[in-house]
Amino acid sequence: MIYDAKKEIDIQRANSRLKYLIEKKKLFEIIEKKERRSISQNNYLHLIFSWFAIQTGYTEEEVKQEIFKKHINPSLFYEGEHGQIVKIERWRSTADLDTGEMTLAIDRFRDYSAKELGIYLPEPKDLAHLQEIEIEIKKQPQYL
Fold this sequence. Notes:
With about 140 residues, the chain is mainly α. Helix content is about 55%, strand content about 5%.
């Protein structure tokens, strides 16, 4: 669990957890989380997928495949149908996008989220907000 020492509630939770671990004579590790200077596009993308999932009730995979690729960005991801017996739709992987395409796809996703659903997805440079989202995601793993 990640605790933010700037928040009183997190301090209380951390102290409570530490006290429990000591009382039960458990083996544990305390690690300082360093501030991040930047976040990669891929890490950022999966972070906002998870946040969107928590806000909407979809799984992260549903957000990525059905909403991000098929609903919002089909022009970037749809490769057409293939197969002689059964027609199968083929969709590109996000790994196949170049930086410009990924930026466009993310911008479209952020715009859609804000305009259509009123869900704010922070920009990559908004590290404080992204850190808060990361903490919330760890509290709600059912959406991952």
